[in-house]
Amino acid sequence: MIKYAIRLHKNNRDAVLIFHAAPNLEGHFQWYITKDKNVVGQPIEDELYESYITHTKRIKEEGYEGLYLYCKFNYLEANKENTTEFIKLSSDITKIIESGTVFDEISPFDENGQIT
Fold this sequence. Notes:
Layout: E1 2-7, E2 15-20, E3 27-34, E4 42-43, E5 51-55, H1 56-62, E6 68-75, E7 81-83, E8 87-88, H2 93-98, E9 105-108
Parallel strand pairs: 1-9
Antiparallel strand pairs: 1-2, 2-5, 3-4, 3-6, 6-7, 6-8
């Protein structure tokens, strides 16, 4: 999984989060949310794409605080189901990082809303 975060301008807590399950592969995707890594999660309605984009504020609004996000996907050619790593969600990006999630890139928005 490729993971990106874009921090809000002059804000170390809030960020846009982008999780990309399977780059360069054709398949069927479904994102899930679960309280426990060892329990099959509930599918997130209409999240059937290889990328899941959210915001730390949305995590709180949706009640996903402290839950785990993951994706199950089937490669069209191999017809094999795969599961991504589990990401512990928080409305504070610092807590997501402290939980062990390693982002491929963390960038800030500047005062004009551009990614720097």
